[in-house]
Specification:
Elements lengths: L16 E2 L10 H9 L11 H14 L3 E5 L2 H12 L5 E5 L3 H4 L4 H6 L2 E5 L8 H7 L10 E7 L12 H13 L3 E6 L2 H8 L3 H4 L5 E5 L10 E5 L1 H14 L7 H13 L4 H16 L5 E2 L6 E5 L7 H10 L2 E2 L1 E3 L2 E5 L6 H17 L1
The chain binds pyridoxal-5'-phosphate.
Pyridoxal-5'-phosphate binds next to helix 3.
Length: 355
């Protein structure tokens, strides 16, 4: 069955308020101008000056030796584990991680890796849970090669891993001779929310990537950073997977524009998320997870309406969002205004009242 996040009814009213995902942003006029002006070359042979500039910017932002531009965050995760592991190796990640839940089984299908699902609240595992999952290195157990974290933890509620925990997990992984991988699809949301630099936040992590097509508002692209040797290996996989591009500077220009203009404003998305959560939590029976960044998870069933019905009713009113892991996820972003948040709260209140 094809995956469609929300039933698409051709007769449905147009979407006016799009809380489905921060991937839904459209490039701004200024971003499109930057794209039109971009100097370009052949990315595949390292000749696109705009892509090269973006890679330098990302390497320095994340405090690593080198970076590579990728078509998607998924390709960053997949090529990272392919570069770090050999068939039969074990990757440790939280049970709700994107690499487990949303990459079509790529790590098993393409790499022959097994991913161990670590439990824990809010999309995060503790140092103790990680330690308990480690096993001796004998010929019996699969080699434990990579530990992976998501900053922020998406299905966990957009929660922020504390830097001290990240440091501890990375230090223990290093003592075990494991590589450390950070899925930083929304790393910059965590950095803006905590005022910790991306460089510090990812200091103990061998591979780390950011997504430009999420809250940063670019149409395409992600970039992964690491040591020069790691990035060389990732390039091999990028080529193998068909991710090498040509005049990709047009896309890289949008990403550079987003680094220059769309990082600080993530704070607006976080403020909108807090307002939405506060408005929802004032309704009797509504269960709302306190947002730390731009994702608001809530369950209206205690307020008299199952989540999927709420999603459908909101869609009838032109508000798009979806169920994720048993709750409704609302995502704030560049194309969501404070007024849209107020309107959404009002609509939910009306729907609950009539239920
Ligand atoms: C979106 C997302 C990805 C994948 O990024 P794409 O650019 O959509 O391929 C990976 N991890 C997390 C946590 C994400 O939210």
């Amino acid at each position: 069955m094809p995956y469609t996040p929300v039933p698409t009814d051709p007769k449905a009213s147009p979407v006016r308020i799009n809380l489905l995902s921060d991937t839904q942003t459209r490039p701004t006029p200024a971003m499109r101008e930057a794209m039109a002006r971009a100097e370009v070359g052949d990315e595949q042979i390292g000749d696109d000056p705009t892509v090269n500039l973006l890679c330098e910017r990302v390497a320095s932002l994340l405090g690593k030796e080198a970076a590579v531009f990728m078509p998607s965050g998924t390709m960053c995760n997949v090529s990272a584990t392919l570069a770090h592991c050999r068939p039969g190796d074990e990757i440790l990640a939280h049970e709700t991680a994107h690499i487990i839940a949303r990459e079509g089984g790529a790590h098993a299908a393409l790499g022959g890796f097994q991913v161990t699902r670590l439990p824990g609240a809010d999309g995060q595992f503790t140092l103790d849970t990680f330690r308990a999952a480690l096993h001796p290195r004998t010929r019996y157990e699969p080699p434990q090669t990579v530990v992976s974290v998501e900053q922020t933890a998406n299905i966990g509620g957009g929660t922020i891993w504390k830097k001290a925990v990240l440091d501890d997990v990375a230090a223990l992984a290093k003592r075990q001779d494991m590589a450390t991988h950070m899925d930083g699809a929304r790393l910059l949301n965590a950095c803006v929310a905590t005022s910790i630099s991306a460089h510090d936040m990812s200091a103990g992590w061998d591979s780390v990537w950011i997504d430009f097509s999420k809250g940063l508002g670019a149409p395409i692209g992600a970039a992964m950073a690491g040591s020069r040797a790691f990035i060389d290996e990732v390039w091999r996989w990028k080529q193998r997977l068909g991710g090498s591009m040509r005049q990709a500077g047009v896309c890289a220009a949008a990403c550079i524009h987003s680094l220059d203009h769309h990082i600080d404003r993530l704070a607006d998305d976080h403020a909108n998320a807090r307002v939405l959560a506060r408005g929802l939590s004032q309704m009797a029976g509504m269960v709302v997870q306190e947002p730390e960044t731009n994702l608001v998870f809530f369950d209206p069933s205690g307020a008299g309406l199952p989540g999927q019905q709420m999603v459908t009713r909101l869609r009838d009113h032109g508000v798009l969002l979806e169920m994720m892991d048993g709750r409704i996820r609302a995502c704030t972003h560049l194309d969501v205004s404070a007024a849209m948040i107020e309107e959404t709260i009002g609509l939910v209140r009306d729907i609950v009242r009539k239920a």
